Amino acid sequence: APRVLSGIQPTADSFHLGNYLGALRQWVALQETSDAFYCVVDLHAITVAQDPAVLRHRTRVSAAQLLALGIDTDRATLFVQSQVPEHAQLAWVLNCITGFGEAGRMTQFKDKASRQGSDRASVGLFTYPVLQAADILLYQADQVPVGEDQRQHLELTRDLAGRFNTTYGPTFTVPSPHIVSGAKILDLQDPTSKMSKSASSPAGIVDLLDEPAVSAKKIRSAVTDTGREVRFDPQEKAGVSNLLTIHSALSGRPVAELELEYAGRGYGDLKKDVAAVLTDFTTPLRAAVDGYLADPAQLDAILAEGAERARTVASATLAATFDRVGFLPRV
Ligand code: TYM
Predict the structure, then answer these.
(1) Distance 150 CA to ligand 1 centre (A)
(2) What phi, psi does 178 have (nearest 5°)?
(3) Mean local confidence (pLDDT), 18-38
């Protein structure tokens, strides 16, 4: 079976619809057909300042959401990045074959650093994509299910894998991105940019754990255009198209069928129905998340077992890598 790896940051109290439709939906699907490793990336989270107690809570909330969404630990390995020390160890080696300019060209780094100011942005933020490459290469992943915004980081991962293999001999599988169409969910208030926990206002983000009344209000207030026609046209009708993408993904109905259904009806009807399909999806999800969070010791035990399984794969790759670069064997 192909090997799959992906990760998500524990940097919010809830995942949002972009995370789910862009990536997590694929995580659940791919565990059926592949040997999947899914990781809550707390090392990545601290590249920007985090309150320790909040981070600890959000790491558990993240794991609880993944389980509630259907990640099944009999099929997939679910773990927390900091519990597998090989991630940081391989990242060091990869840092040493990454060009300074190459890292500096990463657009997510440039965006985040310019938002924070270059004196306040951490070196960790700069080398973030190299740690991401380590996450992927440690597991010899063939496929990496992510949203469109991660494309450049995966390109860097492929470059680093190829460079290492050429320099030291074949060591890493060169991974392919697994990016589905519609893998970019837009900010409801600003449908020219992606829905993003770091950049969007709360009104622009639909959180999976929002109360139904809260998400219904956000969808009702979504920015559309001055026309009346419900039509999928990302150029001219970015807001309406985003709502159609969301509806289609959650209801499983093709966009073309939805266009017919809303022909001659206004945006209000579409928004009402998007809120309804969303509530149908999130209501059982919220209950399941609460169930997992009610027993944090049990949750921690699930994650500890996942980390142990992950380490058996990660440690083998790291040992091979250390040997390739000329480190002494540990006897
Ligand atoms: P993160 O935590 O920002 O987001 C998790 C996943 O959600 C996707 N995503 C979106 N997809 C569609 N539309 C959106 N508006 C949207 N917003 C977020 C992201 O593409 C991602 O797949 N760097 C990664 C985490 C990471 C990782 C890895 C991913 C660390 N190591 C190894 C893959 C493999 C990130 O920040 O994701």
Answers:
(1) 6
(2) -120, 90
(3) 97
